[in-house]
């Protein structure tokens, strides 16, 4: 890993400004989720996930001193792409001026996107067929949170990130990963309409009462929090135990454990089940909310910049996302370049 950068929208949504609940009710939600504010794009097409990733990438390339002509692989991981087709990675290749010899493609994943993307791009680089690669991970999923749905509105923030990786014959960083996929959970986190299965229709725009005082349309994200919690709280510790056994990982030799920032309650439960102390599990949930697949690289930029730049780190990464798609791993970094957080 050569470097990492992140970009968020300048616009901030403060949860205490929410008008559909009393101040006392809002404080309860903040206490449960751990989220006080989120950086959110205005969803009018002016700022998309690709724009956030593009700005992060321009900054990182400058810091690394890389020429665009040297980049031969781009992977874009998101569920908020520019278009249904073509792939956003292909759009970025042209917009940013990368050579036509560059391989560029998308991976459609949510919160597990960075862990999965790192595995894909790491394996492709390890062959030596690609020398310099960019893993762009992000989402502007706050557009899926209806203002009338308090179960979602307090959680979702937007961000775009980029991780630069470079082939090395003699001094390669270690990446050990384990994954799990459980498609039976697909109905528990879903935007029901807008795809090929359920095309957009007149009913898609109707604001429906879904219970507990929440309302949303079929173009908004529906999440069954209990099912998500159950999947994460059983799946991630089990997957991490598998990782420990396969790769001989001991917690006391790990510098940091980076856990997907879904909510305060889930984060704390996973931290304890994985047996990591608070000082080894940084969080930025309070200021950014759940930023989906960009959570882990954004966490590195906002909480570990100085250490990532100054010394070798061995870290555990872990995430559970829509699908359900789960991933955990151990990665090492050695004095990489880290850009200051960028805003758009």
Write a structural description.
- With 344 residues, the chain is of the alpha/beta class.
- Helices cover 31% and strands 24% of the residues.
- Strands 1, 4, 5, 6, 7, 16 and 17 form a 7-stranded mixed sheet that branches. A 4-stranded mixed sheet has the order 8-15-14-13.
- It is globular and about 60 Å long.
Briefly characterize the structure.
This protein has helices spanning 23-33, 49-64, 88-96, 113-126, 150-153, 225-247, 264-273, 285-288, 295-303, 305-310; strands at 3-8, 12-14, 37-39, 73-77, 103-107, 132-139, 159-166, 175-181, 189-190, 208-211, 214-216, 222-223, 256-259, 312-321, 325-334, 337-338, 342-343.
Summing up helix and strand content along with how strands pair, one would put the structural category as: alpha/beta
Shape: globular
Low-confidence stretches: none
The helix content, as a percent range, equals 25-40%
**Major β-sheet annotation:** 7 strands, mixed
Q: What integer value in Å does the Rg equal?
A: 19 Å
Number of helices: 10
Oligomer: single chain
H and E order: EEHEHEHEHEHEEEEEEHEHHHHEEEE
Measured by DSSP, the beta-strand proportion falls in 15-25%
Mean of pLDDT: 95
Q: Tell me the number of strands.
A: 17
> How widely separated are the two ends?
25 Å
Which SSEs are present, and which pair or pack?
Blueprint: E1 3-8, E2 12-14, H1 23-33, E3 37-39, H2 49-64, E4 73-77, H3 88-96, E5 103-107, H4 113-126, E6 132-139, H5 150-153, E7 159-166, E8 175-181, E9 189-190, E10 208-211, E11 214-216, E12 222-223, H6 225-247, E13 256-259, H7 264-273, H8 285-288, H9 295-303, H10 305-310, E14 312-321, E15 325-334, E16 337-338, E17 342-343
Parallel strand pairs: 1-16, 1-17, 4-5, 4-6, 13-14
Antiparallel strand pairs: 1-7, 2-3, 6-7, 8-15, 9-12, 10-11, 14-15
Helix pairs in contact: 6-7
